[in-house]
Amino acid sequence: MAAIVQAVGLTKQVQSGDQPLVILNEVSIEVEAGESLAIVGASGSGKSTLLGLLAGLDVPSSGSVLLNGKSLFNLDEDGRARLRGELAGFVFQSFQLLPALSALENVMLPLELAGNKDARQRAQASLQQVGLSARVHHLPKHLSGGEQQRVALARAFVTQPKILFADEPTGNLDATTGAQIIELMLELNRAQGTTLILVTHDENLARRCSKQIRLASGQVVQ
Amino acid sequence: MNLFRLSLNLLRRDWRAGEWRVLLLALVLAVGSLATVGLFADRVRQALQQQAQSLIGADLRITSTRPLPSDYRQSAEAKGLQVVQSRTFPSMVSFGEKVLLSEMQAVEVGYPLRGKIEIDGENVGRVLTRQDGRVGLKPDLQNSTIPVRGTVWVDERLLRRLDMQVGDEVGIGALRLKVAARIVKDIDQSIGFASFAPRVLMNEADLLATGLVQEGSRISYRLMFAGDAAQVGALKAALQDKLSSNEKLEDVRDARPEIRTALERAEHFLGLAALTAAILAGAAMALAARRFVLRHLDGVAVMRCLGAQQGQVLWLFANQFILLGLVAVVLGGLLGYATQAALVESIASMREAALPQPSVLPLLKAAASGFALLMGFAFLPLLQLRKVSPLRVLRRELGAPEASAWLVYGLAVAVLAGLFLWHAGSLKLGLAVLGGLLVGLLLFGWLAWLLLQGLARYSRFFQAHWRQAFNNLARHGRSAAVQVVALSLGGMALLVLTLVRGDLLEAWQGKLPVDAPNRFAVNIQTDQFQAIQDFFKQQTLPVPELQPMVRGRLIAINEKAVNADSYAEPRAQALVEREFNLSYMAQMPSWNEVVSGAWWTPQANGELSVEEGIAKTLNIKLGDSLTYDVAGSQFTAHVTNLRKVQWDSMKVNFFVITTPELLKDFPTSYLSSFYLPPDQVKAGDALSRAFPNILLIDTGAVIAQVRSIMDQIAQTVSAVFLFTLLSGLAVLYAALLAMQDERSHEAAILRTLGADGAYLRRLHIAEFAILGAISGLFAAAGAVLLGWVLALFVLEISYQANLFIWLLGIAGGILIVVIAGVLSTRKVITLPPMRVLRTDY
Lengths: 222, 841
Hints:
Distance between the termini of chain A: 23 Å
Strand order of the largest sheet of chain B: 2-3-10-7-9-8
Largest sheet of chain B: 6 strands, mixed, barrel
Helix content of chain A: 25-40%
Shape of chain A: globular
CATH architecture of chain A: 3-Layer(aba) Sandwich
Distance between the termini of chain B: 34 Å
Order of helices and strands of chain A: EEEHEEHEHHHEHEHEE
Oligomer: heterodimer
Largest interface: A-B, 36 and 31 residues
Helix content of chain B: 55-70%
Structural class of chain A: alpha/beta
Strand content of chain A: 25-35%
Strand order of the largest sheet of chain A: 6-7-8-3-9-10
Structural class of chain B: alpha+beta
CATH topology of chain A: Rossmann fold
């Protein structure tokens, strides 16, 4: 099967005072469609930086990323945004819901940005899938952490993305709620055949993925 | 379409969350302030334009201070034009014990040739009417265009002030005439608030019998013509060459140029004052826009992450922005409309003048200015939102993308400069005012910043919450300085308009001695000399000095002809265009003072004494020869001294005095000023009744008139500056909001460290009290400075600042800022610290 995500020699270096600081050093990975990849490592090991580069949220100092065969960094900022809109869904540690929009409107957002006409129906269906059909008109501040993350999952899956990027999706949740969210995410992942790329501290969660890489000081150690 | 709906959605939610409130408030105030001035000026301008059409009551008019040659009338009639004449002059009108100075106009049948006088009254001609089968009578306005002999038409002001009704009889000169109608809509007069005296319209045929037409009477002769355009054009061309220097030819276009100029100046001044509010509103908008951007970084980063392109982000916010602008413009327009309407209602003379409704043009101008402000102050920060990195979803420490400071400030200043030029109507004035204002604001701001830093240095001497308050303000020095400047500007305007204005007026009036003359008697005839003296003796009043007066026109200086074209200055042009009052005497009045040259000896002749001010205006020097035209004959004499005159002494003063032999054989009338004690006011009315031709002017009434005009101006200016104060408060509000997140964070940390609500409240009150006190201090200092400048350079009096200004400034500043501040921060204190700290970044 062809790799849906292919990263070659990804390096990220920033200037820290007078010294150059290497955050990510020559990382290469390949993820095939439908696979799940867990990126683990200690704080500051470069996990989130790698995720950001894989999703085209940031540009590397050197190296390349192919998403579904398209080279991310040959595109400009808007081109990368368009590609994300077509291919990717996101789940974050801090949920990242727009506080001004209701649960439903948050889920509708990626569809509306893509110009979808049936955004409302699809968003409602997606919220039903995550068990929030009773709370569609609530604002994020009126939802619990677990509920907010469910909305974020609904928003991530509503576009039926080929790839889901998840950054510590349970980091802000208690163990029980976190476990429920994980189950839900993996279930949706299976159901839609989505490729999952996940950053986590949680070894149990990592083990449930089909592939794992461990980072230390910006390098793949395992 | 989806995006538009989304932006509407976001707007609605953001609106509910109060994100747009300051931006909208500031913009509404800016547009409201500009619309108030624009609409107000427009109504006055329209009133002038409407009047211009019927203003001269004809197509063409000649006005002169002397009887007009009969061939003017003959040649016009020969050309087939309609011609009527009228004579206008001031006279006393009496009813019972009351006497009032009025403007009389004696007209002949056919008047007015253009426009219509509307009257209502009982005793004018009536015609039969039929309505619903019933027969009635109504005034025949068509057929009675002028009062019939023995009657007059008067305006509402005369009826009210003399407390009389249509049907009563009034005394005018030697005649008693019946008031046949009230003039509802007049023509051929000055506009309501600009005219001084009430109007009386009488039949020309009654004029002679009043005995009011005498030597030296101030009569304005008018000859009016109407016909088709070609006839009028031909007549105008023919007349133009024949006119003598005291005759003025006017057509509709020339009507009331002086009011037009004054209005334009007032409009520019008020427009610039309104722009002060706009500058502050701009500052509030910039603060609000910055906060808006900061609070939307996360949302935009998420959208970028979810595939939103830069254009989409821009479009999303531009939509909201334009919608907000539209709403603000509509609300600001309504506010401006309501304010100007209230203003017109509150000023009696404006209300009476029944100004027409304003046109839509000033609203469009205010709206365009509002959008320009929005673009200049808020758009650029907003534009930065599209550049938010999507990486922010992972790394929240990434700040807002910054636009170049040069670009931000440059655009704001460019927009302001554009607005100032547009509203000032002159490059020089616009740039001077904007430059002065910006330099002043920066200076004020710098001083405020310096003061805050200085106070923070010595904060160790204060209690903990004061210490922290001083330090907080010093840490936010720039923002605090902007707030101080904004608040003090508004406060200063209010202090000047309330306390300083009152002080100045009192100081100015206090300059007059208690027994300064309070009556002017004008138009006394030579044969009344003895009778007048007897009258005063009889009333046990001191006999006043009577000064001779001859009217003449300056036609040459050093044998070189002068006319309006000889001078650039409008005042000088006006002085040589009209006749002015000359006097002759052997002794200089004791209240005058020679400043150069010497007063003449009793034997001297052919000498002139000129007031120093007019000498400067007309560029007349000692030794110059001046040629005057008096009643058609000319004389030339030399200037041998320049005099300083105390104009506000309320005594009779002349610009030019001659040696007696030059003028004594010309038709002369006399004038005088005297003091009438309050308990002998009736003697004045008795004088008017005994000598109906004499015009008795109550200078107390003139002062009251001046005061009322000043009050009207102050009211207008106050209304405009109220917007300045409100905009200042908007800046405060915006700044408070801008600091709210940080304040919440700080409060949460302090509370976790053990500070209770009372401490936080004390801390906030201390901060606001310091801010308010400094703003009040600056406002009072500015007001005193401005009062001093006005006193010294405009009123030429010494000015002792009222101590109350400082007290009121500082106490008012503290009160306003503390109330506004406490109201806006009360949530910060009650919010649980955990909630703040968890959602903070």
